[in-house]
Specification:
heterodimer, A: about 20 residues, about 40% helix, B: about 280 residues, mainly alpha, 4 strands
């Protein structure tokens, strides 16, 4: 699941730095 | 939980709603009812105004003066323009996914859930929340876009070529019925949390803590609706029924996006939206 949802996973783990979309 | 705790939870989620979502229900209501002191949205009602207005679709909070003296971008053929608008709206949707994720993380107990379950709750809940979030931006005649800077008419959206014309009409039908409930910002915040904390999503590993969290939010929502809307005792039940409508609406939306991917050679779906929609329904 983690492999298939890398961005979503990153959004969930990373609360402060903006995620490069 | 004590009613004081439930009220504290409502306040906390309402604060989070205001912190994470740029266009709240109260702000949208002010714009749609013309109470924004001359700062009215740019209206898109035909291809010409779309060409002029598409520039703003992906711009966050563009100053009014800049909007007024903007130079029109070069015209694109109608088909191209529809795809280009769709691409810009996709970017806004991806931003909205981020906003919903941050809101979810602010729900007490959410980040302590199993990480696999957090991913599943968001995957299944995020489009339902975004669809509900869209409702207050709509009235029977059109919808706000781009942080309230644009108002696109319903008739214009219906006039777009297939399948683009089919994308928004079901959302209008849902919105018109949903808006009759007249929820306020704090009701919306609790409702979003209830949607996110659905323990029946496929693939969840540890359902019990999710159901426990949802139960507390449901109690807070029920208490709040009884307090704020005492004249509508059926509101809580009516709102819960909307969750069934939302699932169908999202399933139809995802089917349409998959169809678009097949039919439109030039269409490129945003990677975050691809992740969410893959194997969703």
């Amino acid at each position: 699941l983690k492999e298939k949802h890398k961005i979503l996973h990153r959004l969930l783990q990373n609360s402060t730095s903006p995620v490069d979309l | 939980p004590e009613s004081a705790d439930l009220r504290a939870l409502s306040r906390q989620l309402c604060l989070s709603y205001h912190r994470h979502f740029p266009l709240t229900k109260s702000k949208a209501k002010a714009i749609l009812s013309g109470k924004t002191h001359g700062n009215s949205p740019f209206v898109i009602h035909d291809m010409k105004s779309l060409t002029a207005g598409q520039y703003f679709i992906n711009c966050r909070q563009l100053p009014v003066l800049e909007r007024q003296r903007s130079v029109l971008p070069p015209e694109e053929p109608a088909g191209e323009l529809e795809l280009s608008v769709f691409r810009r709206l996709q970017f806004r949707s991806a931003e909205a996914v981020q906003e919903v994720t941050e809101f979810a993380k602010s729900i007490p107990g959410f980040t302590e859930l199993d990480m696999n379950d957090q991913v599943i709750l968001l995957k299944y809940g995020v489009i339902e929340v975004m669809t509900t979030m869209l409702a207050p931006l709509m009235n029977k005649d059109g919808t706000l876009f781009a942080y309230g800077q644009i108002f696109m008419t319903r008739e214009f959206l219906k006039s777009l070529r297939k399948p683009f014309c089919e994308m928004m009409e079901p959302k209008f039908e849902f919105a018109v019925k949903f808006n009759v409930l007249e929820l306020d910002d704090s009701d919306m915040a609790l409702f979003f949390a209830v949607i996110i904390l659905s323990g029946d999503r496929p693939g969840l590993v540890n359902v019990k803590p999710i159901e426990d969290l949802q139960e507390t939010v449901l109690l807070a929502l029920e208490l709040q609706l009884k307090t704020i809307h005492p004249d509508c005792p059926q509101l809580f039940a009516k709102l819960l029924q909307k969750m069934t409508d939302l699932r169908q609406l999202v399933a139809d939306h995802v089917r349409l996006i998959h169809l678009l991917k097949k039919q439109e050679v030039q269409m490129c779906l945003h990677p975050l939206l691809q992740e969410i929609m893959r194997d969703l329904y």
